[in-house]
């Protein structure tokens, strides 16, 4: 096998290792978030799905590098994205304003500027 072939194999294994290591995180998030979890998705695809939805409609997703996002329609009918992180059992949302909570779902109305009762997940297949 040539050096170039070895490099291709090494690169593909690195990508496979990266994907496999994220699977437990994705499975956990799917359990926590239920139907609002869309898995691997870039921001443009989330924007397309959320376009025309009512205020407070949201979904959670992960990008190719493993960052988790809350994407949703805010109070001025704009789709926005907040990066979600968990630091020492505190959930954070970063989207120009930083919000934190002990409960992940409490970040949704804070980030999207909607009342708790107005926020609803975008259900797959609807």
Keywords:
126 residues; alpha/beta; SHC Adaptor Protein; seven-stranded mixed β-sheet; 3 helices; 29% strand; globular; disordered N terminus
- The name of the CATH topology is SHC Adaptor Protein
- Helical segment tally? 3
Percent of residues in beta strands?
25-35%
Name the CATH architecture.
2-Layer Sandwich
> Please, how many domains?
1
Described by strand count, sense and barrel closure, the largest sheet is: 7 strands, mixed
Shape: globular
* Quaternary form: single chain
Structural class based on helices, strands and sheet pairing: alpha/beta
Mean of pLDDT: 82
Number of strands: 7
What's the SSE pattern?
A: HEHEEEEEHE
Relevant CATH superfamily: SH2 domain
| Terminal CA distance | 50 Å
Low-confidence stretches: 1-21
Radius of gyration from CA coordinates: 17 Å
Estimated helix fraction: 25-40%
CATH class identity: Alpha Beta
Describe it.
- This protein has 126 residues and is an alpha/beta fold.
- It has a single domain (3-121), classed as 2-Layer Sandwich (SHC Adaptor Protein).
- The chain has helices at 3-33, 43-50, 107-112; strands spanning 37-40, 57-62, 68-73, 79-87, 90-94, 98-101, 120-121.
- Strands 1, 2, 3, 4, 5, 6 and 7 form a seven-stranded mixed β-sheet that branches.
- A hairpin with a 2-residue loop joins β4 (79-87) and β5 (90-94).
- The longest helix is centred in the first third of the chain and has 31 residues, at 3-33.
- The chain starts with a helix and ends in a 5-residue tail after the last strand.
- Residues 1-21 have low confidence and may be disordered.
